[in-house]
Amino acid sequence: MSIENHTDKQEFNITVYTENHIGLLTRIAIIFSRRKINVECLNTSPSEIEGIHRFNIVITETAEVVRKIAGQIEKQVGVLKAYYNTNQDVIWQEMALYKVPTDVIAERAIVERLLRENGARAVVIRKDYTVFETTGQREETDNLIKVLEPYGLIEFVRSARIAIIKDSEGFHRKLQEFEESEPHDEVVENEFLSSREKVFTM
Amino acid sequence: MLTKEKQAPALPKEAKTISGAEALILALLEEKVDTIFGYPGGAIMPVYDALYDYTDKLNHVLVRHEQGGIHAGQGYARSSGKVGVVFATSGPGATNLVTGLADAQIDSTPLVCITGQVFAHLLGTDAFQETDILNITTPITKWNYQITDASEIPDVLAKAFYIARSGRPGPVLIDITKNAQQQKFEFTGYQPCRHIRSYKPKPSVRQEYIVQAAELINGAKKPFILWGQGVILGSAEREFKAFVEKSGIPAAWTIMGAGALATDHPQNVGMLGMHGNYGPNVLTNECDVLIAIGMRFDDRVTGRLDKYARQAKVVHLDIDPTEIGKNVPATVPVWGDCKETLPLLTALIEAKEHSEWLGQFRKYNKEEVEVVIQEELFPTSEEMTMGEVIQQLNDLTAGNAIVVTDVGQHQMVACRYAKLNHTRSNITSGGLGTMGFALPAAIGAKFGTPDRTVVAVIGDGGFQMNLQEMGTIMQTGVDVKILILNNQFLGMVRQWQELFLERRYSFVDITSPDFVKVASGYGISGRSVSKREELQEALQQMLSHQGSFLLEVMVTKENNVFPMVPQGCSVSEIRLK
Description:
The structure holds two protein chains of two kinds.
Chain A: E1 10-19, H1 24-34, E2 41-46, E3 52-61, H2 63-75, E4 79-86, E5 90-101, H3 102-108, H4 111-117, E6 121-125, E7 129-136, H5 138-148, E8 155-158, E9 162-165, H6 172-179
Antiparallel strand pairs in A: 1-3, 1-4, 2-3, 5-7, 5-8, 5-9, 6-7
Chain B: E1 16-19, H1 20-30, E2 35-38, H2 45-51, E3 59-62, H3 66-80, E4 84-88, H4 92-95, H5 98-106, E5 111-117, H6 133-137, E6 143-147, H7 153-165, E7 171-177, H8 178-182, E8 184-187, H9 207-219, E9 223-227, H10 230-233, H11 237-247, E10 251-253, E11 268-271, H12 278-284, E12 289-293, H13 299-302, E13 313-318, E14 332-335, H14 338-348, H15 355-377, H16 386-397, E15 402-405, H17 409-417, E16 426-427, H18 438-448, E17 454-459, H19 460-463, H20 470-476, E18 481-486, H21 491-500, H22 515-521, E19 525-529, H23 532-544, E20 549-554
């Protein structure tokens, strides 16, 4: 679980719980751009708690840089908590849509097998085109591109990543702590001296 | 609509219908604001109209440029410890605040800036004097918010003041559309904000880290304290002094921390960093435990980071957890407000005297005096030095004045040599290095602390960047002593060109107007001296003059500030010449 080599860059999933306020997206995004860090994907969505938004951000960086970035994010007014995790610590998925010409695909492909093998389904079937959808990790969604390319892939789009933290208990308990006006001991973990939690937190 | 995070008990006030602009003024009064620095304009006119009825309760200082206004707000906040309040209109008024916001953000100065904005229905249409000030200022504000409905004003203002002053302070900008200023609404009273669920001003203190820090300090042979502005911002000067005195540990300051412990305190060993003192820089790389208090290991302090205090165990006290381990890894991170953590630590440390270790600082100091300080403060050359002017000023003020400095050579000299007996006596643009800061900041500092003498030490270059604020002095009659150290160069850049760029003096030769005549045009008395015999008497004249006074001192043209840690070098490679 611990990240031994601080110089090695790898994918990190940054999960941020925030208020649903205008301007927070910019405030968070510029923390990356100021340091010339490319955001590979970013998803904002509701969370398990009404009124609390959840960002999922993927960057490729060293653990040291990600720790500092998460701290800067968490410091912003409107941000409740920022977690960061490696791909091993999260369950993650992306969704992709593929548009192909219906006549070609009907004529030349064994559609049913193709869909089954790639865990895909047809969302729309029209006379002129068909849209397939698949959900999975990057190699799975990439794979279907390769399969469909020979049939004249017209359009492709992939969603940002969404991720669930394996060891997270959700945010309900934390939120209660934040709503108490007196600071709670558990709110700030000390990463230098506490034994590390299973989930990295700031 | 912003929801109130924590409902305080409702005030037993009756609702009344007022405009958003008036609600803003009432909010300022509730927050005990006494002074506003501002400049009117189209989009903030309703606020100024509301202010017209409250001039008996609120002192509005009409500045000559919004940048002057925000620097005055900073000076006010830094001298008084209160939140500085600034008004500006939309568009150019708002963008003129940008430098001051960046300055306040990096130097953690509490400000609430109110900007007017075009009508809400015109947002995004490139309306006259419309600018997207929220997105422009997002990276340089602690928080910002746009109000488009008057009913939001009380709660948002309460939140703004709370955020600006709590935790690690910083600037907040509130942009109010003109319709929200004009709109009438049911005002049910003002409730100060004390809690926001998504904002944690300071981490909780944990006793186990205090214990570990005390163990490290008690076991140290050569411990060394570095302190910064955090001590001042936390109003922890007394707690800090108690810690320093019980521990017997030598203590050095960053430029932002100057004055938190009197400059002549026997354990105050001097200034850190690029133009700091010899001993504190060299011995940073010899100490065994480094105790950093309310400071952020800026690159001007650390020099080359991979050769900075590698031998030392580091105890870092800071209210902002992201500062700990940002530049220098901490062995023991003591998160929290140093007003709370210092007494806990003082209780656990052993009373000691590190006289031999302090002696090492004295030895380096002796060498620095011989090679640098003696000639700077008591020159044998014909021409005057900046150092001797500060030295003479010290003699006359006895170290009781507030010294506001601009940026450049004179800043380094003033900060190195100014005698400071009291906290909140050194006001300078530390992090951003904003030329043009000193004159308006000094004006603000005087409004913040009317009982203190305020001396603005400024270079000939920096003075020309905001000299229009002499108009503010003229109109308000505020008493600011302006001391221009004129070396007829942009001296710090010239020094680097001399030392590192083979004296290729590229655009550092700057011509100045007759400053005394310019001041006279503003009704400010002045004098220029170029002979040593006149210096003391001229300084005395400046200090005892009723009202503002401008004194220009012609100093030697090509003097360099030493010691110096050249860029890219370790602190122990500091040069004495």
